[in-house]
Protein 1
Amino acid sequence: MIHAYILIQTEVGKAAVVAQQISGIAGVTSSEDVTGPYDVIVRAEASSVDELGKLVVAKVQSVSGITRTLTCPVVNL
């Protein structure tokens, strides 16, 4: 299983709505609106890197109000 954090920037005033919409996507384990350079931080899981990519591109990035994402896969060193 691949786990990742997805850092999201949104349009002004859209963070709470974006976090709520993303929380209903299969593969998303948590979605929270935060302060700082990013507006929403999502924890997600997928069976492979390819599936993670599909989750981010096809599902997460299609949510209205998102302007930019940065996906950070979790590594176990």
Protein 2
Amino acid sequence: MKIFKIAFWILWRIWFYVLMAIPILIMLPFLVISILSEKGYPYFFKMARIWAKFILFGMGFFYTVKREQKLVKGKSYMIVANHTSMTDIMLTLALIKNPFVFVGKKELVKIPLFGFFYKRTCILVDRSSSKSKNEVFKRAQNRLNQGLSICIFPEGGVPDDESILLDEFKDGAFRLAIDHQIPIVPIVYPDNKERFSYTFLSGSPGKMRARILPFVETKGLTSDNRKELRDQVRNMIYNGLVDYQKE
């Protein structure tokens, strides 16, 4: 029985990367055109949402979402969520209609085909370089000035210890939100670790629940409030995860 499980996991993981490639190849000319200039990003974003949903359904994931507040079309937000899986990217794209840009780790550039577009549309951060972090901040400000939203996983990466429910948050997302006086959208993903974690021989098709919590306003806040804001949002997401565990 264990041999069959291992064979399933290996084939299933390979299938994930096949699914990543199929819609990219089908939409390739339109994707390339959409990234020729920053003005084309909203069109790229629409195709990215199709790509994300294709992967989720192709992997046997079906998602449900509880929205405690809805985003307003044309408004910029800072989107933050707990981070436990690569599928966090796909699920966030599936849930959020307002065009947003990911701030993500540069290591994903290595994924064939996906990495080509990831590098050209996302804001990449090298967490070992302070210069890179400053450059990320400038690029994110530029995108917000264009009327887009930003999505950051404020844990700064997926914890190596999968028993950690929610790691400590970094300040960057909250600094940007205060500087631009935009609302923060906290999202809770309770199932993504179980469905498709970074542990290779793990996971299964099934339900992915999401909960979009009430937005946290930043109007009137200053940099002095950054840590207080960070801790407030982290507590909201943490409590949301605990609530799901009790169900």
Protein 3
Amino acid sequence: MLFSNSKTSLKNPKRNKKISRTFWTPTKIVLLSGHLIVLPICTLIILSFLLPLFTASLSASIGTSHHSTSIPWIDDASECEHTGRNWRDRKCWDNQHDPTF
């Protein structure tokens, strides 16, 4: 019985052509076209949201962003100003540090 089924599929090539012809129905063509249009649009939208995050982390790693940091081992105003830092609120502040310090 198993061998008889395999012989009939070999003898009937019209059946195989019918299966491949019915695969490309108009509905499937429209759905595939829709996916091929929507996929790049969604990709561009997602990348437009992620691009600012990458540029912000890149600029922070380069060191273009600086924040004030107090230097705890300097507790004298004259010593602080001698090193080129600012004395404010009885602390020595350095404006050249990046946020990852």
